[in-house]
Design a protein that fits this description.
The protein is α+β, with helices and mostly antiparallel strands. It folds into two domains: 2-103, no CATH class; 110-189. It is built from four helices and six strands; from the N terminus they run E-H-E-E-E-H-E-E-H-H. A hairpin with a 2-residue loop joins strand 5 and strand 6 (88-96). Helix 3 (110-144) packs antiparallel against helix 4 (152-189). The longest helix is centred in the last third of the chain and has 38 residues, at 152-189. The protein is globular.
């Protein structure tokens, strides 16, 4: 039986999303399809599968990523679904919980963690700048035009966009701190 759950995870919350998907799998719901704000699940035996979420460069359907899925398939890891974003994609993988690949960590070494952190950082910088520019334009539309008075819809949207920009700045700072810690960890291991 298929069930749909509506849930929102923001960029940088991949671990939280993965944890929730694994909790759902432990309760007998295996993710089948992923949208921007929803997840479709199929009922399975509880605790049979583990889900791994990865961020990859390019489209989920790019030739390079298709080769990567075929490589994972040889190890018993199946591609479930993916979501494209500008320049990156999130992919959802399933594996049997009792197999050897269950312990597989996609970002296990410091260099791959640094690359993943830079990927999120770059995406968040781009998105935050774009939303800031939209917010400035929206602010002007709400308060800068004297001919029509204040546009309350634009004022409301400006507040929403400001909240999103604040989230983006916090995520960027978090990525910078994480990047600094990872570089320090890399120097220690060298």
């Amino acid at each position: 039986m298929r069930k749909r759950f509506y849930k929102l995870f923001l960029v940088g919350q991949m671990e939280k999303e993965e944890q929730w998907l694994n909790e759902m799998a432990d309760h007998g719901f295996l993710v089948l399809n992923v949208g921007k704000f929803y997840f479709d699940f199929n009922e399975v035996d509880p605790g049979k599968y583990r889900i791994k979420v990865m961020m990859l460069k390019g489209s989920k359907n790019s030739e390079k990523n298709q080769d990567f899925y075929r490589f994972l398939e040889d190890m018993g890891i199946s591609y479930v679904d993916g979501m494209n974003f500008p320049g990156v994609c999130y992919v959802y993988l399933k594996m049997p919980k009792d197999s050897d690949v269950n312990q597989l960590e996609m970002y296990s070494d410091v260099d791959s963690k640094i690359r993943y952190n830079r990927l999120i950082l770059g995406y968040m910088i781009f998105a935050t700048i774009a939303i800031t520019l939209i917010g400035i334009w929206n602010f002007y539309m709400a308060f800068g035009r004297s001919d029509n008075g204040v546009s309350w819809l634009n004022a409301f949207m400006t507040v929403i966009l400001a909240a999103i920009v604040i989230y983006g700045i916090v995520t960027i700072i978090s990525c910078l701190i994480t990047g600094h810690k990872l570089k320090r960890e890399k120097r220690i291991h060298e």
